[in-house]
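Hey, resending since the last one bounced:
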Amino acid sequence: MSDSIKRPRDVVVVGRGIQPSHVRQTNQRAILSVISLQPGISNAELARVTELAPQTVSAVLTDLEGRNLVTRGEVLRGRRGQPATPLYMNPVGALSIGAEIGWRHIEVCLVGIGTQVLSRVRREYDYPDARTVFGELAAATADLMAQLSPAERARLVGMGLAAPGGIGNPGSLLKPAPGQQELWAGLDIARAAAAATGLDVSLFNDGHAACWAQRVARPAPRPLSFVFLVLDTFVGGGIVAENRLWEGVNGASAHLGSMLVTDGDGQMRFLHEVASLHALGLRLEAAGLPRDVVRSAPLAPPVGAIVDAWIAEASAALAQALMNATRVMEFELAVIESALPSALTREIVAATGRHLARFPILGETAPPPVVAGELGRSGAAQGAALLRMHRRFFSRELAHMDI
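The C-alpha cells again:
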C-alpha cells in the first residue's frame, strides 16, 4: 500500500503501538511523578507504589540522577529493615520560561520543575500590539535568562506560551486598535515567539494554562476532576477530567466564558459580558471612575456600591455556567480565581455558592463545592511553563513521548 494514502484519523489515534523507548520513558515518568508527589520516598517504596521491579527502579533512578532531576537525602537508619535513602526531585533540575500575551498585559516568568516561580516580569497595556509585543517578550525573556548560569541555561527546556483566541478579531468584545486586525490576521503566535526568543515554544490557551497552574498549586490530595473559571479581562476557563487537562482536538475546549447565561434583566448574554473584569470596568467607566480603582482597599462608597451590584449579577451568571458544566461532566470541585484583591474573590466565590445551592437538582447529583483559587491571579504564564515541563517529564500520553 502506498504511504501517500491518507489514513483515517481514528485509525491513527487508536492504532499507534508502543515502542520500547516509550516503555522506558513511561517508567521514568511514573517514577518522577511519584517522587514529586511523595518527596522523601525510598527505592523500596517506589517499587511498591509503581509496581516495577526493584532493579528497574534502580536503573531509572540512576538515569534521573545523571540528568540532575533527582537527588538523594541522608540515609535513614534505625528503622525496621534495610537503611533507606530518601529521594527528592531537584526543584531546579529543569527550568522553563512561561509567558502570557494577554488582552491587557504581558507576563514572563522563570519556573523550576519543582513548580516554584523563580522570577517574574509583567507589564500592562491597552491592547497587544503585534508590532511590539514579541520584542517585549524577547527582552523580558533575555532578562530572565541573564540570571542563569551556563549550567542552569543548559537545563532550560523551552517556553510555554499562553494566549487567548481572537486577538485582532473585530468581532471580539475588546475591539482591536486601528491596524491590529491586519497585523494579527494569520499570525502564527508560537512561530513569532520562537523567532523572537530563539526558544522552542509550545502554545496553550490562556484559560487552560491557568487551570493547570491551579491544579499544581492545590494542596494534596488534589481533585482528579475539577472545573475552573478565572475572572480577568474576560472569563477564562479550563477543565481537568480524571487528572488530565481537557484541551480538545484543536485545543479549544472548555471555553466556558462563551457560555450563554441569563443576566439580571433576563436577557441572554455571554458569560464574558456579565462576569468579566471588562464588564466591571464598563460599569465603573459609566460612573466616571477608572477601571483600576478596585485595586485599592478599602473601596470608597460609590465604588463599593458598583462592585456589589456587579458581584450580585456576576455570581448568578457564574453559578449558571457552573451548573450547566456539571450536567455534562462530573466534578469534585469548582475553582474560581480572579485578578481582583483576594477579599473580593472570596465574596464572588461565596455568592456563587449561594446561587448554586438555590438551584433545583434533578436526580441525586449535587453541584460540587465552590472554592477560591490558590494563586490570587490568573497564573496563565506559570501554567504554560508547567504544562511544557509536564509534557516533557511527567505525561505518559503517547502524543507527549519524545518531546
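The chain has three domains: 16-89, 95-210+381-400, 219-373.

Sorry for the duplicate.
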